[in-house]
Amino acid sequence: MHAVINRIEQLVETLGGLARGCVLVLVLLVSANVLIRYGFSVSPVALQELEWFLISPIALLGISYVLKHRADVRVDFIYEKFQPRTQAAVDLFSALSTCLIGLFLAWVCWHYMMQSYAIGEGSPDPGGLPHRYLVKAFLPLGFALFGLQGIADTLRALKGLLTPNPVPEEALP
Fold first, then answer.
1. By CB neighbour count within 10 A (0-12 exposed, 13-18 middle, 19+ buried), where does 119 fall?
2. Cα distance between residue 43 and residue 23, in whole Å
3. Are 122 and 129 in contact (CB under 8 A)?
4. Can you give the C-alpha Rg of the chain in angstroms?
5. SS3 assignment, position 77
6. Which of 24, 124, 125, 166 is the most buried (most CB within 10 A)?
7. Is 172 left (phi over 0), alpha (psi -120 to 50) or beta?
8. What is the DSSP letter of 119?
9. What SS3 class is residue 115?
């Protein structure tokens, strides 16, 4: 069980690195677009669309990365008072919900992305980027990754429930 959790979270970590790289590229691209626009009075549509396209991997791959690192917003004022086994039960319910929602949305978004691919969707703007399905591919990928992180969290919660004397995560070295 531990090996499966590690494999999933290694994938989440790797794709989270891609999201972090996209943040850097986005910052550089926005800076370049501002310099080009105000320095040379040129505003390439493709570069502006690329800014929007970079937001997809940042948000959709980053959501699983944030969940893996427990940097998401949680309301812990009740949860922290629970016994470790009760915390594991709450974590199991949350993880199962995450898994089901993520995998369902990945399935729905797959059809959306494939429809875009089938019609050869591109930018409606002259000079815009072609192959819009490539950016839409981050929808099923991101939600599938979210569902996978839900599976890892489910396994971790099950491990906590099945351990005879579970120890809270904060107490682990």
1. exposed
2. 21
3. yes
4. 20
5. coil
6. 166
7. beta
8. T
9. helix
Cα(71)–Cα(51) distance, integer angstroms? 25
Neighbours of 80 (CB within 10 A): 10
31 sits in which H/E element:
helix 2-40
Going residue by residue through the chain, which has 173 residues, state the pLDDT in tens, using 9 for 90 and above: 889 999 999 999 999 999 999 999 999 999 999 999 999 999 889 999 999 899 999 999 999 999 999 887 777 788 888 888 888 899 999 999 999 999 999 999 999 999 999 999 998 888 888 999 999 999 999 999 999 999 999 999 999 888 776 555 555 55
Instruction: Work out the angle at residue 23's Cα, subtended by the Cα atoms of residues 19 and 28, and round it to the nearest 5 degrees.
Output: 145
Q: What is d(CA 100, CA 8) in angstroms, rounded to the nearest whole number? A: 16
Tokens of 119: 């019609």
Question: Would you tell me how many other CB atoms lie within 10 Å of the CB of residue 62?
Answer: 21
Q: Virtual CA dihedral for 65, 68, 72, 78, nearest 10 degrees?
A: 170
